[in-house]
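Dissemination and training. As part of the outreach component of the grant, students in the summer workshop were shown how a complex can be specified as a set of sequence lines and then modelled as a single object. The example used during the hands-on session is reproduced here so that future cohorts can follow it. Participants entered these lines:
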Amino acid sequence: MPHDRSAASLLSVSALNAWYGESHVLHGVELDIQAGELVTLLGRNGAGKTTTLRAIMGIVPARSGSIRYDGIELIGLPVHRIAQHGIAYCPEERGIFASLSVRENLMLPPRVGPGGLSLAAIHELFPNLRARQDTAQGTRLSGGEQQMLAIARILRTGARLLLLDEPTEGLAPVIVQLIGQTIRRLKADGFTILLVEQNFRFAAALADRHLVMEHGHIVDMISGSAIDSNMDKLETYLGV
Amino acid sequence: MFEILGIPPQALFGQMLLGLINGSFYAMLSLGLAVIFGMLNIINFAHGAFYMMGAFAAWMLLAYLGLGFYWALLLAPLLVGSFGILVERTMLCRLYRLDHLYGLLFTFGLALVIQGLFRQEFGASGLPYGIPAEMRGGSNLGFMFLPYYRGFVLAASVVVCFGTWFVIERTKLGAYLRAGTENPTLVQAFGVNVPRIIALTYGFGVALAGLAGVLAAPIYSVNPLMGSDLIIVVFAVVVIGGLGSVLGAIVTGFGLGLIEGLTKVFYPEASSTVIFVVMALVLLVRPAGLFGREG
Ligand SMILES: Nc1ncnc2c1ncn2[C@@H]1O[C@H](COP(=O)(O)OP(=O)(O)O)[C@@H](O)[C@H]1O
Ligand SMILES: [Mg+2]
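and obtained this result:
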């Protein structure tokens, strides 16, 4: 792969394997992300994208290999210690808590580092959340608002690496656009982002690089600038 | 003297008070069970044994160290709660990956072991524990006689129950508990030390049982089986209220105590079975319990 692995990566994953019980899902995933980069993970359903994010976060039942973040080995650390190093996860199913109000959902994740967004900045990014902050059940929000909330709550914490799993899935075009703008803004603010997407046209407009995943490993890397000349190849990978 | 439905008010209100006192214990115990079930997914069959340990802790603090009731109120729940945390960290935490049934069987066995040990040491006949001197006697309110200590138990239980409700429903710590009940993995992925919260939750639920035991010591005799008698009724209360809700546990606990008290006035023959009759009716109409989540 053309990407230079020698440059100090913020996140460096190698030989990552993961299992759900007997089923072996990740087979030696290799990936590196530089600080400030926005990298997408593309691939068909079931390729192992979600599992890759979950394995980095430490919430798969079993994993092996190496995950170094900012020089620290994360394999073997308990889940909460991994998060405390400054990694935040926005799950595919959004994970909004029904027994918490919108405000409580937003304020739930504890600080893990300096420099998180202020509440005012978050409300500026997502005015809907300000309007609905007193809603007693987080799950009463619309799908789009729940997605905003799921992203917003990890921006407060001071985490520098964001793992976003299909944030545009099932949302209306205007909301997809808003989330696209938000992600661009976060990159400009210096966040490092690993973004899982099915919608690669959405991803193409944002990312520095694209990693293609098949059957539990990374099979290709396409740089952001080369995406146009590689459309055919990508369409074959993704089966669109 | 006037009468209500043919019953002298002294008798009626007196029995209602007794009912509420029993309800205080039902509420504190079922509240602990609900909190533990929410966070650990374990039905804590050892709850009655922890209640008994609270009463014995009060007795031992006095007999061996000369520390009276107020010290016991503070120290016994701490001691029993710490023991609960020890049990959770060394044994219970190994069972979470397995079926619910293992937690239930383990805590049931643990209750038998604890009871057996106390019976071996102290016999089954019961030990006396006096009402603290300032709270002996009572006063006549006109419509009823209020023994001070019983009034104190009721007030203490109301304060503890609603204090717990407040912490769980209205504070940041409570938000962690509620979120952890829904999705512990995600809460831990945010950087919260969920295993520690689980241990503390168990310790807290157990401490509540211990506190109830201290409050019970001056009223009921302190004996190794005091918990196993009470816990059967408390499980009926839990079935009626449903395990889902903190407020449900509190309201059902007090409510059923009251119903039991009133039954003693109007149809004494049924007073020891009325809770089980209510349980059967609730199971027919709402199997998940009055406050439980369906499905
Ligand atoms: N909880 C689970 N238990 C068992 N198998 C799972 C579980 N989650 C995902 N899998 C399997 O792991 C593979 C990868 O899934 P996933 O990482 O969710 O893929 P993607 O996010 O790329 O669609 C799939 O074959 C899926 O069926
Ligand atoms: Mg997925």
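Chain A touches chain B through 25 residues (CB under 8 Å). Students were then asked to discuss how this feature might be tested experimentally.
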